[in-house]
Amino acid sequence: MEWNTEKIEVRSIIALKDYITRNNRLQPFINENDKTPSWDGEVFVYNSNSRNKKDLYGKVPVQVKGVCNEDLSKKEIKYSFDSSDLQNYKDEGIIIFVVYMKNYDENKIYYSALLPFDLHRITKGLKENQKTKSITLKEFPKQNQEEILKIFDNFIENKKVSGGIVDNRILSLQDMRSLGIKTDRFYFKCCRDFQKMIKDSCEYDIYIYAKPQGYDVKIPVDKLGIIKQIVQNVSSNVTINNKVFYNNYEVITKLDEYIIVIGNSFKLNISTDKIHYDICGTLTQRIQGIKFFIELLNYKKVQINGIELPNIIPNSCSGNIKDLEKELNRLEIIRSVLIDKLGVSEDLEMDNLSEEDNCKIVCLIKSFVNNESVYMDIETENIYNTKNPIDAGMIMGNLNIGNLSVKLLFVVEGNNKYKLMNFFGSNIRKVDLIDSDNQVHTVSLYTQLKKEDFLVTSNINYKNIIDSYIKMPKSETQNNLYNNLVLEILRAYDEQKEKNIKLLKLAIEITELLLKEFKKSEALFLKLNKFQIIKRERKFNLNEIEELYKLKFSTKDNVNLMVINILLDNFQEANDYFNKLLSKEEKEQFNKYPIANLWDKNCNNTI
Question: Fewer Cβ within 10 Å of end Cβ, the chain: N or C?
């Protein structure tokens, strides 16, 4: 069979009209061999089957393209349209059709309904001198007259709502904000029948409209496209045998499915009467999921939102209980080690744990549960953030497991053999430091913490850090090291994207303790540290501002004056001190202090 362009075009239009004319509410006016530029015709849509003039609902411009193609298996295709045609369609919109012709009797029709909103977006993205644009088209439901009518109805209805396309512009939400247009509310078209709404949203595009304040018009601002599923979070108890396991659950509604999701591990497909269980999620989520499933296997029924669902577990699943109880016991031991023994505050994410991670977990259990030594080659295994020797028989470092970084003490017991201890396990952890004069100073071990520790460590015990200072013998060395610790804490806080306010509380508590050990005349640097902590937390009150000015007028030290000016946002004055009065070495040192993070060097304001 030979095809030419004219024959393909004619046969394509005949095929499309064949299916449209089967619907009494649709009347196509599409001419074969039509020479009209860009458009091939229109389809009139009526409110009733009588098709009287008074019942005319609207008309839809159409363009039809025919293609000789034997592959009729695709649900979706792409086709290139002339950019000039797309520009011409912008005012009225268009439904474009591409008909794949295999032979005279076999064909497949694809379509794309393009409202003015869509066309403005498409043409806005065209490059200069771009001749064509590829458009995605989906399968036309030619055997379903209700869906065919819905395509044309939706086009007209959305077009009538789209009264906000003026001056050849589509206004996005950002455009509306830039123009100072305030919005009363947002709209989208949906059916009152929930199940029908689900069906429609899974098959047709959804447009979002905004109503500007003071105007009776709806402006199209976005397009959601076809929704694959709707997820609803329901706040209601999930109970078995009067035990509450969850206080919420999810309902996933798809075109042909209704699924209840409980926790991270359990799915009940109401449509197919099937269950799916998979142990996943964090350590806490897995423990709760297994407890729930064991109870479900024992009682065979669950109550959701006050409704009892009986016999949802087949008897064949009962044999899994022993395996589940064994896994539950293992997970609870891990949780006990991490929380009770090590004080880890974060939940362990377990879905992507490596074999090495699991080996480290085994080492923790051996050491903290069985009181056994473990073998680790800490020089060759890249598993520590730091490996700082405290003395000849002990090393401090971080053991990384998944998303956790646990700070430990490694007590050397032999060649690559260690006893593991919680770094924060006691508030009297101490270390002996030897100064340049060979003098030994016994100080808190926590003075050795650095910025990186506060950024990554999962088991920091803030109380022990404070208690250690209180219980250790007071000394100038200890005080200086704790003041340096405050600076390390502030450096860590400044680097955090998600700020941990506990760090500021720790820093201010240490500073308050240090202030009690110094005479007022010697405590200026501590007062300034306290002020820079407060500034990170909130704005100064009037009393604090007054005190800063008193300190400013009572000191002549250039560095202290710089700090005070930065705290008061007198950045121009701070710049003058920095550039004119500080030596090169002082400048380098000053930039290392966390106060420099509060200094806007490009700002020239002076209060």
Answer: N
Burial of 310 (0-12, 13-18, 19+ CB in 10 A): exposed
Gyration radius of the chain's alpha carbons: 36
Phi/psi of residue 409, each to 5°? Answer: -110, 130
**pLDDT tens readout for residues 440-480:** 888 899 999 999 999 999 999 999 999 999 998 888 888 99
Q: Return the structure tokens found at 124.
A: 């806005």
DSSP 367-422: HHTS---EE--TTTS--EEEEEEEETTEEEEEEEETTEEEEEEEEEEETTEEEEEE
Going through 307-349 in order, the beta strands assigned E by DSSP cover 307-309
* φ, ψ of residue 511 in degrees (nearest 5): -65, -40
Tell me how far apart the alpha carbons of residues 414 and 207 are, in angstroms, rounded to a whole number.
Answer: 70
**How distant, in Å, are the alpha carbons of 312, 368, 437 from that of 419?**
49, 9, 33
Strands 94-101 and 107-114, sheet pairing: antiparallel
Given a contact cutoff of 8 angstroms between Cβ atoms, the answer to whether 247 and 235 are in contact is yes
Contact 142, 109 (CB under 8 A): yes
Query: What are the E-state strand segments in 76-131?
Result: 76-82, 94-101, 107-114
381 contacts 355 by C-beta, under 8 angstroms: no
Sign of the alpha-carbon dihedral angle for 176, 177, 179, 180: positive
Q: How many CA atoms lie within 13 A of 355 on its CB side?
A: 0
Rounded to the nearest angstrom, the gap between the alpha carbon of residue 421 and the centroid of all alpha carbons in its chain is 36
Residue pair 75/139 in contact (Cβ under 8 Å)? The answer is: yes
Q: HSE on the CB side for 263, CA within 13 Å?
A: 25
pLDDT value, residue 170: 66
- Token look-up 């999962």 returns 458
Question: What residues contact 58, with CB distance under 8 A and at least 6 apart?
Answer: 44, 45, 156, 159, 160
Q: Quickly count: other Cβ atoms within 10 Å of residue 401's Cβ.
A: 26
Strands 41-46 and 56-68, how do they pair?
antiparallel
- Is the CB of residue 216 less than 8 Å from the CB of residue 200? no
Other CB atoms within a 10 A radius of the CB of residue 408 amount to: 23
pLDDT of residue 383: 36
Instruction: Enter the pTM of the model.
Output: 0.70
What's the mean pLDDT in 175-199? Answer: 69
Cα gap 252→270, rounded to integer Å: 10
Taking the C-alpha atoms of residue 213 and residue 128, their distance in angstroms, rounded to an integer, is 37
* Strand partners for 218: 162
